[in-house]
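As practice, study what follows.
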Amino acid sequence: MPADSEGSPQMPHTWRPLGPRVMATALVIALAVVCAMSWIGFDDETRAKFTVFEKATLGFFGLLILVLVHALTRSRVVARTDGLVVVNGYRRRDLDWAQVVAVNFPPGAPWVNLDLADGTNIPVMGVQASDGGRARTAARQLASIAAELGAR
């Protein structure tokens, strides 16, 4: 079945948040430019005052920022005929369709939530409200697929 804007998309299908990926890219580029321009703006005497430990600390925090941004940007949800894969940051959950009872995206919620058969609820950061209509369409598609494949 071909993908359309409201119906079930062709399987497998992956949803990723667009807004957070754009903002993360802009943040990393802006931070790199500010740090580089600051370093270039220092005179030789000021640069010489930085110890190896201080440079390593700055490098550590830069790496930490990259790791956190990467965790945010790798969030996704993949619908396959055999189940659902939810990746939130560095955590991955593989679910059977029978486990997914409902797909909820209440007004004001930051992202979609899945109600599971065991009574738990898990967030799906791959569909975020910041994407507006794109997120609402994704939530409807995901709910449609869950209803169709969960009934099997």
Remarks:
- The mean pLDDT is 90.
- The beta strands are 13-15, 76-80, 83-88, 91-95, 100-104, 111-116, 121-128.
- The chain has four helices and seven strands.
